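User: What would this chain look like folded?
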Amino acid sequence: MMMAAARKATNWFAIGITAAAVVIVLVIGGVVWFANSQATSAGTLPESPAVNTDTGAIAVGSGPKTVDTYVDFMCPICNSFEQAYGPTLQQLVDDGTITLNIHPISILDRQSQGTMYSTRSASAAYCVAVDDPANVSAFVSALYAQQPSEGTSGLDDATLASIATTAGASDAVTSCIQDGTYTKYVTAMTRETPIQSGASGVSTPTIVVDGTVLTNQTDLTGDPQKDIVARLNG
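Assistant: Here's the prediction, encoded as structure tokens.
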């Protein structure tokens, strides 16, 4: 029975990734993007003790090993990843094993009827991190719990602000979200997402375990002990 259950979970996650992972070929049109030009295009930087402004990572925890997650909050497979792997990742944070680096990125704006939901929600995550990074995990969990379907307009800014304050952020976060303070930064950091083996562009989710970029179709089976914990201990 245990083997059958494991096989079912593996098949579910692998099929979901294959069917729904979004890949975008990033074309710069012949322009060479030097580090200084990228910094200029990044707009306002989210200055917070929890944010690495060079990489876009929002750090949760302070463990010596790292797991980086590159996620789009409209991506249904990112939500599936959160449900399957989130409790284990949180336990690894809580017991001091890892620093969980959350990278909010945007590749699904075309799926939100012109409202740029992916970019807006990612920017909102940075607003929460700047306001008080202790509330980031609760905010991210709430975003997934209320995730809009692809092809809809997504949640409006007032709803994002309400989710943020319910997660513990101060009222000051509302203007940050409504102003889209970090939207340019989100776009710039999305370009920095590592490319999975065999892919031609950015995919979500992209998971990096202690510096090793995983390939969704072969490395994510739905079993966090095998896919994450074993690699951390290997």
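The CA atoms of residues 150 and 171 lie 29 Å apart. If you want, I can go into more detail on any region.
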